[in-house]
Design a protein that fits this description.
Blueprint: H1 2-18, E1 39-48, E2 54-60, E3 65-71, E4 76-82, E5 84-86, E6 100-108, E7 112-119, E8 123-132, E9 135-144, E10 172-178, H2 195-212, E11 216-220, H3 230-239, E12 244-251, E13 262-266, H4 268-284, E14 288-290, E15 293-295, H5 300-329, E16 341-343, E17 355-362, H6 366-372, H7 375-405
Parallel strand pairs: 1-5, 10-11, 10-12, 12-17, 13-16
Antiparallel strand pairs: 1-2, 2-9, 3-4, 4-7, 6-7, 8-9, 13-17, 14-15
Helix pairs in contact: 1-5, 2-7, 4-5, 5-7
Length: 406
C-alpha cells in the first residue's frame, strides 16, 4: 500500500510537469533543459584546510546545480549532482580520511548522479561552488559535531555547531478537531455527560502529547465551548498548513448495550463528490493549489485528473494513519470493528490532508460514559491516538529517506 501511494504521488507530480501545470514543486530548471549537455565530474580528492578541516573537492568541466542532505542511523552525507555524470568511477585513496568511511555512487534517472558518504560520526557538511582553471570545483567542507569550526565569529569566539535532526526543517502539523461544541452538545449520556465536553478534554490531552514529540506540533480546531462549522474546521486546518487531521468524537446508539471504539476515513464516494466541489470552486472563485500544482480554468482536464489522483493518494495515507490508531485504541478499549471503516463525513473531505474520525467510545453506554468522564481514561485514549500518529510519522520519515536514497 505504501509503495503504491508513493508511486502515485510521483506520478501526480510528473503529470503536472508534463502537462505544463504551473507551480509543480522541487525540480531543478536544468533537469528539463534541452541541448545543454551533461556536466562532467573529472575527479575527486580530499584536502585539508586551516585548522585541519577536511574538504572533499570535486573537479567539474562546467557549473552545476547540486543538493546536499545529512542523514543519521547510520550517519551519511548525500550529494546529488543535477544533470551531471562522472568521467570515470570516483575513487578515494584508502585511509585518506578519518571522517569518511566509504564513498558510494550511483546514477539517478538518466540525468543525475548521486554520491553517498558513509561517515564515521555525525558531521555537518557545507558546500561551495567556484571557478577553477578552465572549469569549476565543488568543495564539500566537513565539521564533525562536538568539534569547533575552524572559522571565528566577529567577536573571536568559535562558531557553534548544532546537530542536524532527521526531520530538520519539517514539522508535522496535526490538526485536532474536538467534535461539536457550543449550541451543539453532540451525544448526551444517560448521566448527562456531553460529548462536546469529553472530546475537548481528550483533544487537549492529545495536543500535549504531540507537542512534546520532536518534529510534531498540535493545533486545536476549537479550544473552548463554541461551535465551528464543518467546512470552517477544514479551512482552519488548511490555514495552519496541517499535514494530518484528526476529528475526535464519542459515539451514541439507541442500544445502550453497544460498546467499543472505531475509526473512520473518507469513503471513495465521498472523495468523488468532493472532487466535483473543489473543481467547481476553482472554476467560480479562485486559483487553487493541489499536489504542488496550481489548478486553473484553462487546465480543466489536468486539474480533474490531478484532483482524482491526489484524493486517492490522501485516502491511502489516511488508511495507514487510521490503521495504526485503531490498533492502539484496541489496547485501551474493545473495538467495535477491527478494521478501519469509511464514510462520507464532511469534516474529512480535505483532498490533500490525510484525515480520520475517531469514535473513542459509546457515551450512550453507561459503563463507557462513566469511563469517559474520568481524566485517567481520557489520558489513555489520548495517548493511544498519539502512539498511532507517532508510528505514522516515523514510517513517513523512513519512507521519504528510502525514496531519496533509492
Amino acid at each position: 500500500m505504501k509503495n503504491i501511494s508513493q508511486k502515485r504521488r510521483s506520478f501526480v507530480l510528473t503529470l503536472g510537469k508534463a502537462m505544463g501545470v504551473a507551480g509543480v514543486v522541487s525540480a531543478a530548471p536544468q533537469a528539463f533543459a534541452k541541448g545543454r549537455g551533461h556536466a562532467s565530474i573529472q575527479s575527486v580528492s580530499l584536502k585539508k584546510g586551516d585548522g585541519g578541516q577536511q574538504r572533499l573537492v570535486f573537479k567539474l568541466d562546467k557549473s552545476i546545480k547540486h543538493k546536499v542532505m545529512t542523514l543519521s542511523s547510520p550517519d551519511r552525507i548525500v550529494i546529488d549532482f543535477i544533470d551531471t555524470k562522472p568521467k570515470a568511477a570516483l575513487k578515494l585513496s584508502r585511509n585518506s580520511s578519518t571522517l569518511i568511511k566509504k564513498l558510494r555512487q550511483s546514477s539517478r534517472n538518466k540525468n543525475d548522479f548521486r554520491v553517498v558518504l558513509d561517515m564515521a560520526g555525525k558531521t555537518k557538511a557545507t558546500t561551495k561552488l567556484k571557478p577553477s582553471g578552465n572549469g569549476y570545483q565543488l568543495e564539500v567542507a566537513f565539521n564533525p559535531f562536538g568539534q569547533q569550526s575552524a572559522g571565528k565569529s566577529a567577536v573571536g569566539k568559535p562558531k557553534a555547531v548544532t546537530p542536524v535532526s532527521r526531520n530538520k526543517g519539517k514539522t508535522i502539523i496535526v490538526a485536532i478537531d474536538a467534535g461539536h461544541g457550543g449550541n451543539d452538545p453532540g451525544a448526551v449520556g444517560k448521566k448527562g455527560t456531553k460529548e462536546k465536553s469529553v472530546v475537548l478534554q481528550i483533544s487537549k490531552r492529545l495536543k500535549k502529547h504531540i507537542d512534546r514529540q520532536p518534529g510534531m506540533k498540535g493545533v486545536l480546531i476549537r479550544d473552548g465551548d463554541y461551535y465551528v462549522s464543518l467546512r470552517k474546521r477544514i479551512a482552519k486546518a488548511r490555514k495552519n498548513k496541517a499535514d494530518l487531521f484528526i476529528s475526535i468524537h464519542a459515539d451514541a446508539n439507541p442500544s445502550r448495550k453497544l460498546t467499543g471504539s472505531s475509526v473512520y476515513i473518507l469513503s471513495k464516494g465521498g472523495a468523488s463528490s468532493e472532487q466535483a466541489r473543489w473543481l467547481a470552486n476553482s472554476e467560480n472563485s479562485y486559483e487553487m493549489k493541489m499536489a504542488g500544482a496550481h489548478l486553473r480554468k484553462q487546465n480543466k482536464v489536468v486539474s480533474s485528473l490531478l484532483l482524482e489522483l491526489s484524493l486517492s493518494d490522501t485516502i491511502d495515507k489516511s488508511l495507514n494513519l487510521a490503521g495504526g490508531v485503531l490498533k492502539e485504541l484496541g489496547s485501551v478499549n474493545r473495538l467495535l470493528r477491527r478494521r478501519v471503516e469509511s464514510a462520507g463525513f464532511v469534516v474529512l473531505k480535505s483532498p490533500d490532508i490525510p484525515s480520520m474520525l475517531v469514535e473513542t467510545a459509546f457515551i450512550s453506554n453507561a459503563m463507557e460514559e462513566k469511563r469517559l468522564k474520568t481524566s485517567a481514561y481520557q489520558e489513555k485514549l489520548a495517548k493511544a491516538i498519539f502512539k498511532g500518529v507517532r508510528q505514522y510519522q516515523v514510517a513517513s520519515i523512513e519512507m521519504e529517506q528510502k525514496e531519496y536514497l533509492s
